[in-house]
Amino acid sequence: MSNQPTSTQYDLRGSVAVVTLANPPVNGLGYSLRSGIVAGLDKALADDKVTAIVLIGSDRAFSGGADVKEFGTPKAGTDPNLGVVIRALEDSRKPVIAAIGGMALGGGLELAMGAHFRVAKPDAQLGLPEVKLGLLPGAGGTQRLPRLIGLEAALNIIVSGAPTPAKKFEGTPLLDAIIEGDLLAGALAFAEKAVADKLPLKRVRDLKVKAPGADAFLQFARNTVGAMSKNFPAPLKCVEAVAASVSLPFDQGLKAERELFMQLMATPESRALRHIFNAERAASKVSDIPEDTQLRDVKKVGMIGAGTMGVGITMNFINVGIPVALLEMKQEALDKGLATIRKNYENSMAKGKLTQAQLDERMALVTPTLEYSAFKDVDLVIEAVFESMEVKEKVFKTLDEVCKPGAILASNTSALNLDQIAQFTKRPQDVVGLHFFSPANVMRLLEVVRGAKTGKDVLATSMALAKKIKKIAVVSGVCDGFIGNRIVARYGQASNELLNAGASPSQIDNALQKFGLAMGIYRMGDLAGLDIGYAGRKRRKEANPEAYIPIVADRLAEAGRFGQKTGAGWYRYEAGKRDPIVDPAVEKIIEDFRTERGLAARKVSDEEVIERCIYAMVNEGARILEEGIAQRASDIDIVYLNGYGFPAHRGGPMLYADTVGLANVVRALKRIAAEPGADAKFWQPAPLLLKLAEEGKTFN
Question: Which residues are catalytic?
Answer without folding.
Answer: 110, 130
